[in-house]
Amino acid sequence: MQRRVKIVVSGRVQGVYFRMFTHNKAKHFAIKGTVSNLPDGRVEIIAEADQASLDKLIKWCHRGPITARVTNVDVSDLPIDDVFEAFKII
Fold first, then answer.
1. CA torsion sign, 54 to 28 to 18 to 78?
2. Which entry of 19, 24, 42, 72 is annotated as an active-site residue?
3. For residue 11, what is the enclosing H or E element?
4. pLDDT at 1
5. Is 3 a catalytic site residue?
6. Residue in 37, 42, 69, 72 annotated catalytic
7. Alpha helices in 36-75 (DSSP H)
8. Which of 3, 4, 11, 57 suits 51 as a labelling partner, its CA being 20 to 30 A distant?
9. Short-list 35, 85, 25, CA closest to 55
10. Would you call 19 a catalytic residue per the annotation?
11. Where are the alpha helices (DSSP H) in 5-85?
C-alpha cells in the first residue's frame, strides 16, 4: 500500500547538497515525489512509496549527508491526490 508523507528537515540542511543526496536516496529506495528548500532554511520532502521505503528515507533524513547538521525531522501524512512520475528536485 502506498503512503504519502511530508518530511520537513531542520538544521544546517541548505548549502550542503541535502536535496541532491535526498534525490539519490529516493531513487535508490524507489520513492516518488519532490524535495525543495524552504525560505526559512529548512528542507521539505514530499515522498510517496510503500511504508518500508519511506521508513528508510525518514531514517536517513535524521542524519542527512555528512556535511549537514540535522536538528529536527517532522513527518506528517498527506492525501494521495495526484500521481508523481518520478522524484524531482525543485
1. negative
2. 19
3. strand 2-12
4. 84
5. no
6. 37
7. 51-61
8. 11
9. 25
10. yes
11. 18-28, 51-61
The predicted-structure confidence for 14-67, as pLDDT tens digits, reads as follows 999 999 999 999 999 999 999 999 999 999 999 999 999 999 999 999 999 999
Q: At what angle do helices 18-28 and 51-61 cross, to 10 degrees?
A: 160
- Grid coordinates of 32: 516518488
Torsion of CA 7, 12, 13, 18, to 10 degrees: -130
* Cα dihedral value 11, 13, 19, 24, nearest 10: -80
Q: Which domain holds residue 28?
A: 2-89
Instruction: Read off the amino acid at residue 33.
Output: G
Q: At 58, which CATH number?
A: 3.30.70.100
What gap in Å lies between CA 16 and CA 83, rounded to an integer?
29
